[in-house]
Write a structure and sequence with these properties.
The complex is a heterodimer of chains A (about 230) and B (about 200). Chain A is built from 4 helices and 7 strands; from the N terminus they run αβββββββααα. Chain A is an alpha+beta fold and about 230 residues long. In chain A, the strands form 2 sheets. A 4-stranded antiparallel sheet of chain A has the order 4-3-6-7, with no helix packed on it. In chain A, strands 1-2-5 form a 3-stranded antiparallel sheet, with helices on one face. Chain A is elongated and about 95 Å long. The N and C termini of chain A lie close together (about 10 Å). In chain B, a hairpin with a 2-residue loop joins strand 1 and strand 2. In chain B, helix 3 packs across helix 5 and helix 6 runs antiparallel to helix 8. Classes of the chains: A alpha+beta (about 230), B mainly alpha (about 200). At the A-B interface, helix 1, strand 6, strand 7 and helix 4 of A face helix 2, strand 2, helix 4, helix 6 and helix 8 of B.
Amino acid sequence: MEIQRRTRCMVAGLCLLIVLMMAVPAQAHKIMVFGYLDEGQVRLEGYFADGKKAENSLVEVFGPDGSKLLEGRTDTQGTFAFPMPDVPQVRIVLSASMGHRAECTVEGERKAPVRPPVTAKPAAASRPAAGDAANTRAREATVPERISTVQPESLREDAAAPCASGLTEQQVRTIVAQELDRKLGPLRREVAHLAQPQTSLTDILGGIGYIAGIMGLIMYFKARRGGRA
Amino acid sequence: MHISEGICSPPVLAAGLGLALAGVAYGLRKIDAPDIPKVGVLSSAFFVASLIHVPIGPTSVHLVLNGLMGVLLGWAAFPAIMIALLLQGVLFQYGGLTTLGINTVNMALPAVICYYLFRGMVRAEGVKKAALAGFASGFVSISLSLLGVATTLVLTQKAFLITAKVVLIAHVPVMVIEGLITAFVLVFLKKVKPEIIEG
């Protein structure tokens, strides 16, 4: 009788092992969504954990006070985009069929605080004046964390005048900001994507360990109550 | 198949939890000590089965295995499924913790129903009957689970019966695959160790 029990367990364990080996490359099946800011637009992507895109799924956007700002549907690539509303943060809810639902939040651009105007200095002393102005700014303002489209105070008083290349300082700043936004867009997307929780073999083994432990507890209590041995 | 957090209304969640706990209590009483390894192994199989994907058209679905659990465990499927769902929720953030009750009922109740429907056929002599019963059990349990999910969503007014019917038809491939897998496993067990199926 004892040998039969043991072989019974071993056979069942073998079936489980086969199932486990098939499962390890995959991830838990659920819908996920991540959103990021890209040149003033909020872009979001919805997908299932095995990589399939969440097509034609309902998107609802809520403001920080809970009011619904807008809604729409994802396209065939599972993406959806809308201009960032004038709120510090939006909450995005993605719903697919059969009770699947996922949420994410996207923070708005943090604009640099308004700087006090730099006092006028003689045009001849441009470089030392730039140094003083920079120090003043450093003490009073904080570095913006995102490239903002708000133009900061210029370092030169004659900033409106074109330089040798024919571009004013303002124009150069705008160009650099736009280029950086363009380059950072995909990077932000990657970061948002990586921030999603991933399942691992550790989780699977941990779960099976927990099940074994709980079964052991059940067995212990049954034995104490004198169940059929 | 797993309903996520934040969809169902509190009364539905509470009713589901109540039913699930009743089922789990009854299931625990029905377990005998020698059956516990079987319960543990099948609970682990269910836990891992959700990681196996079956791509179906625009969405993808996963294996459930509640037909197999029903036929082999009977009422013990309730605690086995609830424990596995709890761990899936905690470790994989899959499904939800408030929805533990309704998800358990939607998956374990069809398992128990299939137990009563097919246990005679599975325990009968011969491999063919076991295979047929296995296929039927897998097929029927998934359909009942989908019906359960659709009903739960309808009760929260999140879905309509028309959508439910469409979803059911879309999941027919899953029902077939589950039926085949359950049939294969039962045939294998019947040939190698029929004692697992008895009792």
